[in-house]
Design brief:
Elements: E1 3-10, H1 12-17, H2 22-35, E2 41-47, H3 57-67, E3 71-76, H4 79-82, H5 86-97, E4 103-106, E5 111-112, H6 116-149, E6 164-167, E7 170-173, H7 175-189, H8 194-204, H9 212-218, E8 227-230, E9 233-236, H10 245-257, E10 276-278, E11 285-291, E12 296-302, E13 325-326, H11 327-339, H12 346-379, H13 385-409, H14 416-424, H15 432-442, E14 443-449, E15 452-457
Helix pairs in contact: 5-6, 6-13, 7-8, 8-9, 12-13
Length: 459
Amino acid sequence: MSKTALYSRVSTLEQAREGYSIGAQKARLEAYAVAKGLDNPEHYSDPGVSGSTTNRPELQRMINDIKDKKVSHVIVYKLDRLSRSQRDTLSLVQDLFNLYDVKFISLEESIDTGTPMGIAMIGVLSAFAELERSTFKVRSLMGREERAKKGLYHGGGNYDPLGYTYEDGKLIIDPYEAEIVKEMYDLYVSGNSMNTVSEMMKAKYPDRVKSFTLVKGVLSHILYVGKVTFNGNTYDGVHEAIIDENTWRKAQQIRKSRSVGATKTNKRKGLLLGKVYCARCGARLQRVVSGSRKYRYVYYKCYSQNRSRSTANMIKDRNCKLPAQQAEKLEELVLNHLKGLEFENFETKEKDENAQISNRENQIKKLQAQSERIMDLYTLGMIDVEVVKDKNAPILKRIEVLQDEIEELYVTHDVDEAQDTLANFDWENASKEEQILLVDTLVDRIEVDSDDVRIYLSF
């Protein structure tokens, strides 16, 4: 026989204020069930538990009973007793109660999903929930900006920057990783190229350093001198610095100076060595020279096709059939790609993007105000719920579109170094070493599959 679930909840703070005592809620719920002749009333009570989460023992027991088809009605004293999250409340009603044909009743709001008016009220809740979803992203971005102004880093989880852990909303130095960061800076400011530092760190700390991009980020990010950035602005951070400002500035000066000159220690002949990979099996491509001195041929060939024991660890797939790539042709293609990059308008573009973001945020505020006016008219009884839905739907859709556009515009472009490098590069007279340094600085990875070449930049 099905039963009527009488759900009550009170938080610790509410218990202290005695605003919603469990006893008072139980009495009202039971009296209502008896008056309506509802079958087998059973209490589900979560005393001293916050309504901000649905992970509550008695609520979960009630949910399980509903899924076992033991419940016909759910009654609460007030909607926020079920959940303080409107989205969670709506999800429970629409995705659980309706699915299992359970009638939902809230005494304070006079909601009864067994009546047409109760169903209409759920429609209003839905409209509000849509508005909440559409404004969540805006609030999130505003929250990130406020955190930055307070000196707090926005990150955590898999995005902890090397050298720090993210605990209780703050960056805390990881002693082991901090030493790796210091070692990177020491190697770089003492004359090693960024690529050399990357290879050394990847070999020495393979569990922490896995890419050139990571090393480049560490050697350029102002985070390591105790500052945070957001949307192009820099703020004093509350976290402890790992690198002193003099060392950091020196590293940035070296980065800029190396964009127009070549290091004499770079003796390799292959322009793309260490950067070019087989798109078929994932192995690196090696530089192969064949023929006589007069008729010399240079190729990039997949390491998987090399049968030498000394390179066995480089083989990914012995059956790989990637054709050898003519070195001159492949190198020319990469250089032309870099030469063709357009950076002239990047500063203008960034300002334009910031203006576009501001414009969209203002539009969202106006649309939110329109939606709120519609809901006010409904509250005053001047329009019905169908009008609310019809008028609110295009507004909420437009807000969602604008927010998606804002997210796309918020992409951070780390292009300063690339712009300086290409603006000052002497394409006509550059030596092989200067070309190699250019590729090391700007290219993260090149993947080759026959005539299909994909170039991934490091900025």
